[in-house]
Amino acid sequence: xxxxxxxxxxxxxxxxxxxxxxxxxxxxxxxxxxxxxxxxxxxxxxxxxxxxxxxxxxxxxxxxxxxxxxxxxxxxxxxxxxxxxxxxxxxxxxxxxxxxxxxxxxxxxxxxxxxxxxxxxxxxxxxxxxxxxxxxxxxxxxxxxxxxx
Length: 149
Description:
The protein contains six helices and no strands. The chain is mainly alpha-helical. The chain folds into two domains: 1-67, no CATH class; 68-149, no CATH class. The chain is globular and about 60 Å long. Helix 2 (19-29) packs across helix 3 and helix 4 (73-85) runs parallel beside helix 6 (121-135). The N and C termini lie far apart (42 Å).
């Protein structure tokens, strides 16, 4: 958890206060704008960062739960966490992950104790995701951006 907090602060500072982070945010907003940013270079840097950070996350996850096929369900939990928190918000994605974990555990307790149903904790996250997307399509912490064509 400490590594996650440090990584979130470092990436937040990187995207907010560095020229490369600003260029990455501008490219993510509008790739077609002619503002002198080499989009191919930005994509390459983005993939390089992803390739550098992903093994670290995998190593931390394997230290917690070992390496087996059961770890694959974490990939399915990332999607509702990021969408729930807001795709364009690093802090929102982290908070979304914590909220998804709380929602799943509460739903698991409710479904088991009241309804006597097992294995619906994963469905609860996606059901709540549908409700949140109907109310706030950009997530809880995402910025409202409307593009008119």
